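Shift notes (night). Ran Protein-methionine-sulfoxide reductase catalytic subunit MsrP while the centrifuge was going.
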Amino acid sequence: MLIRTKRDWELPESAATPESVYINRRALMAGAGAIAGGLALGGAARAADAPVGAPAGAPVAAPARNPAYTLDRPVTPEAAATSYNNFYEFGTSKDVVTAAQKMPLRPWTLRIDGMVEKPLTLGVDDLLKAMPVEERLYRHRCVEAWAMAVPWMGFPLAKLVAFAKPLSSATYVELQTFGRDTYAAPGLRQPFYPWPYVEGLTMAEATNDLAFISTGLYGKPLQGQNGAPLRLTLPWKYGFKSVKSIVRISFTDKKPKTFWALLNADEYGFWANVNPAVPHPRWSQAHERLLGSNESVPTQIFNGYGAQVAGLYKGLEKEALFM
Ligand SMILES: Nc1nc2c(c(=O)[nH]1)N[C@H]1C(S)=C(S)[C@@H](COP(=O)(O)O)O[C@H]1N2
Ligand SMILES: [Mo]
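Came back to this:
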């Protein structure tokens, strides 16, 4: 977001959006109708009981959709959400699919450490067996002013926090993407960036029901480009908080030094709650472009999730709604 000379948000939409996201508008609306009508995603193509460790992108048994999370807009076409991505470990363009899919997703371990009863490293499939997987429809709002609405599979971050048994003195959670010691993704050679990618939340944010760890998308295991096999999903915050391909969760009593805040805290701060009233220094945040249709819609405070999260910021509004 910082060192490229040609930024995609400075280009006309037609130049910024890859061909693959232009899809027939009628097909999009038909798809949305099918979802609203309660048809299972993937329909007949979905295998009834594929193993938990099924390959990325392959259909798996559908977990129940949590009816508490509904959308005010059509579901984004799958082809758009899985081909227009931000994942700087694989390059700064939106086209990271080929590079990201080279990353091996198994074996994959998660390290749980910091202020916990007992530090632990466990395999991702052992973690998944211990977590209650469900499906949720969530909006996603990138700080670059594009947005999508997708069906994630996964489990509440609160369940992972409980599993980790943090000490009562822990006040923050830090989540980290793989570094070169785990997988030498090409973007990690860029010395300008403060690798590894780290994000953080207060304990109150991390245990709010909206905070989610995604393991799948559109009824299939998550693919590399979307942050497989474990990816944070925080629908009320700008997308850069939703750290991908997590290898470590750490508990601390110090505010985490996050990747984008280390680069530019005024533009990409620790809180990063979606707020249409506070423009980015180089563009407005009042509207957002929907991936797939390219429709422009007004941005909502907390990305429309104020009822669930505004209470987290009582008395903190001045900083938590600025950046
Ligand atoms: N490790 C890592 N996580 C990341 C990023 C990244 O570059 N590296 N980009 C973030 C940004 S800016 C956004 S908008 C979302 C994009 O997720 P998507 O590609 O699945 O839509 O991932 C976030 N998580
Ligand atoms: Mo983003």
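The chain has one domain: 13-313. The longest helix spans residues 25-36.
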